[in-house]
Amino acid sequence: MQATSLAFKDNARRALADPALQQALSLAKSGFQEKRRIAAARLPEFEALRDRAKAIKDHTLAHLDLYLEAFEQRVIEQGGKVHWARDAAEARAVVLHLCKGAGARSVTKSKSMIAEEIGLNEALEANRIRRVETDLGEYIVQLAGETPSHILAPAIHMTKERISSLFAEHHGTPPVEEPEALLAEARRELRQRYFEADVGITGANFLVAETGSVVLVTNEGNAELTQGLPRTHIVIASLEKLVPTLEDACTLLRVLARSATGQEFAAYTTILTGPKRPADLDGPTGFHIVLVDNGRSAMVGTEFQDILRCIRCGACMNHCPVYLSTGGHAYGWVYPGPMGAVLTPSFIGIRQARHLPSASTFCGRCEQVCPVR
User: Fold this and answer.
1) Which residues, 6+ apart, have CB-to-CB distance to 89 below 8 Å?
2) Reading across the β-sheet that carries 242-243, which strands appear in turn?
3) In this structure, how many other beta carbons lie within 10 angstroms of the beta carbon of residue 23?
4) What backbone torsions phi and psi does residue 211 show, to the nearest 5 degrees?
5) What is the pTM of this model?
6) What is the mean pLDDT of residues 261-284?
């Protein structure tokens, strides 16, 4: 993904002058904020859970080497394989090698920001491997030839009228604007793609050192079809996704959905531990986890370590007056909003992203709502 973070000021001016974008952002703003407020108020122990979630992440980062080794050993014991990638280039090379080894002509892919970070989409297409995004928002931005503008709702910047036009153009169907009809149309288009895929690629919400498990969270069930139907499942995850135990993962799950969408729990929470076993009715025969560093280990023990607690809920964006005025594309790289103000300069260099740390009103809303403080 080509970074345009250096042009943030110009990107922001264009965003502010875009009436369609402003309409889309205004519709999203109140929904996310109010739902999160209600969900937090309904749970008396919510603030205590945030303290516990922060402590879990701090403890893991303080002993990251030990938990990474334990996680790899458990994965191997369960019949899976772990591949280590120091940077984006190594991560792309590993995934392409696994895809070619599986004879992949087509892959399904669920929403994964780390895949965006390493430039996997472009690499797959350059190697003539057909990529099918299965998250509805990701599918929409793929049809539009764009990148996600939000880590949770990739097509948050689009109106239903534009989505209707995209579907009519790519599906050859009459335009419809009712959300239910658009959803049904996308489901029809994607259904056969799941069965045709040779490889399924997902990210991970959490990695559990205790069991060697991968925890996936979705509201659409697309990750479940992506990982369960193809013969080979590839998980791409960054190092900080690790937690010590399943109990720790459950604590973080309790604050994740409430902070992200205002739900008590996501519609689908799947725990994957190794490939298909002889008694299993379905599942992949090849189970691979690509662990990506790409600059994270250099942040451990520095003033920037706190951002590695981030569990990718998107709450900081949903409450940020700058993000809600400009949208995600203005930030010019994978991670927008307050989290991007730290991650983007850390990953692509301060020279390329020097404006992002100043894209702030100092209102402190991001700190107020972050589930890991």
Assistant:
1) none
2) 242-243, 206-208, 213-218, 268-272
3) 13
4) -120, -10
5) 0.96
6) 95
